[in-house]
Amino acid sequence: MRGDYQQLVDEISAALGAPATLEDRDFGLIAFGAHEGEDDEVMDPVRTRSILQRRSSAAVRAWFEAFGITRATTPLRIPPDPAAGVFRGRICLPVRHRGIVHGYVWLLDDGHLTDLELGGRGTPPDPRIAQAMETAARIGALLADEARAGAELGDLLRELLTCPADERLTAEAALRDALRDTLRFPPGSPLTLVAVLPWETTEADGAPLPNLPGLLAACALPADGALAGLVRLRSPGALTPARTVAEHLLRSPRAGAGGAGGTGGAGGAAGGRTRGPRPRAAGIGTGTEDLSALPDAWRQALAAARAARAEPRLGPVTQWDAIGAYRLLTALPAPGPDPAVAALLAPAHAELARTAEVFLDCAGQAGRAAQALGIHRQTLYYRLGRVEKLTGLDLDEGEDRLLLHIALKAARL
């Protein structure tokens, strides 16, 4: 189907004699026409970035959407803006099907399209524009078919990840059949799951599948506030394709900024961060050749994403086998803080909580901890003494250290 898009884009480029680019409604690159000529300025930075990175930036998206492209049903002319890297004007052909926008065809105007009549307000369009819009409508129908297939696969993936254990065999068989029939995906091929936190579920539920190589299915899971992405691997242990998909998904406008970070205790300050929006993050589960293992891979991916949001040094993309103690912590229920540590987690003691966590991260080695904190060793001892008074714990005792360390890490989650 991707070859069909390229052929249709080439038709539009040939009809209008202008370089054309097709992007989905999230500004992800689908296909682009060849640029003929020696004028380097026609290859302006926005088009070049779209081709090389397979996606336009959020700033470019906002600038183009300000011209009303999401509501347009007829071609729009976009003026140049050298300050934004847009050296040439553009004509935007909205790609729609049954009233829904599925993407955009962009035509670079090197000057010869300036007087082209786009139509509207009772004026008929130039025949070449009319032909291009007919081709855009064919593209819209293809994208709509692909979106429906992607939505069906996403629904089946959601069913497998959320259904009761006694219904998983049926859900697994349905997903296996759909992957084989829709994507010609051979059973037994290696897969894994990617979790993206947070994800805007209100828009994503009915949205087309992001245009990413290797991403077979995706579904929003509102209960987790996350997106689950099913990714094809070359082998169960080769997770590079999943990392690439995760990095692209994190750049999607649907990957939200998240809520406030913690309650002002260790979750907000123990790592030296200030309170505010928590970062978006993605986690990757272990690879598998068995669809029945996908629910476990999803729990791993979600745990890794939670850990990456809590611990910036892990993220923004991390694998389940790289999150250390968070493999255990994310599997535990979320009780309130231990009574002995509750006072330390108050916002007023954020610096003490940070000091204690760094000290314990450094295995109780005072020299390393003082260096990491950028303080004198005597200052470290003074702060640790205050921690002991606040908590009633003895930091010379292994079990007390373990309790404090777990409580500080759990507070991040």
Count of β-strands: 10
Give the percentage of residues in beta strands.
5-15%
Give the overall silhouette: elongated
CATH class type of the largest domain = Alpha Beta
Oligomer description: single chain
Average pLDDT level? 85
Q: Would you tell me the structural class of the helices and strands?
A: alpha+beta
Helix % is: 40-55%
Q: Into how many domains do the coordinates divide?
A: 3
- Spatial arrangement of strands, main beta sheet: 2-1-5-4-3
CATH T-level topology of the largest domain: Beta-Lactamase
Going by CATH, the architecture of the largest domain would be 2-Layer Sandwich
What is the CA–CA distance across the termini? 42 Å
Biggest pleated sheet = 5 strands, antiparallel
Q: What ranges have pLDDT less than 50 throughout 5 or more consecutive residues? A: 258-275
Order of helices and strands: HEEHHEEEHHEHEEHHEHEHHHHHH
**CATH homology superfamily name of the largest domain:** GAF domain
Provide the gyration radius in Å.
26 Å
Counted by DSSP, the helix tally is 15
Pfam families: HTH_30
Protein name: PucR family transcriptional regulator
Domain PucR C-terminal helix-turn-helix: 352-410
Biased composition (Gly residues): 256-274
